[in-house]
Design brief:
- With 114 residues, the chain is of the alpha+beta class.
- It has two domains: 1-38; 43-114, Beta-lactamase Inhibitory Protein, Chain:B, domain 1 (2-Layer Sandwich).
- Helix content is 51%, strand content 18%.
- It has three helices and four strands; from the N terminus they run H-H-H-E-E-E-E.
- It has helices at 2-38, 40-52, 61-68, and strands at 73-76, 84-88, 98-103, 106-111.
- Strands 1-2-3-4 form a four-stranded antiparallel beta sheet.
- A hairpin with a 2-residue loop joins strand 3 (98-103) and strand 4 (106-111).
- Helix 1 (2-38) packs across helix 2 (40-52).
- The mean pLDDT is 87.
């Protein structure tokens, strides 16, 4: 009889431990999702995507900067060293960022995120 009580107590303890582990995993997942969707970086990335709908090829740099704001990074173009690429942060899980090619003070090319 004592052996059965020990097994029952051990099983009951394992079930409680499993519940705490599952609740901990769910809480961490929930916090991760909040971070992904509500962090300032995520908000800025969504704003960058919506702002790209307001710009078009041929628009001048000043007007583009009014819509998009300051870029996260700038670097020389791969194709033409006279042009500059303005890089904007992409949404979570995007493989590439938003790149806007500026040359002669005008937008030459817009590469949306993928």
């Amino acid at each position: 009889m004592k052996g059965m009580e020990f097994r029952f107590h051990k099983t009951n303890f394992m079930i409680k431990a499993l519940k705490y582990i599952i609740l901990s995993i769910l809480a961490l997942f929930f916090l991760f999702m909040i971070y992904i969707f509500l962090s300032p970086r995520a908000f800025k990335a969504r704003k960058n995507v919506s702002n790209t709908k307001n710009i078009e090829i041929g628009m001048n740099k000043k007007a583009m900067l009014e819509f998009m704001g300051e870029p996260d990074d700038t670097y020389p173009s791969y194709y033409d060293n006279k042009d500059t690429i303005y890089f904007y942060e992409p949404p979570f899980m995007a493989s590439d960022g938003i790149e806007i090619y500026i040359g002669d003070n005008r937008i030459k090319r817009i590469v949306p995120y993928r």
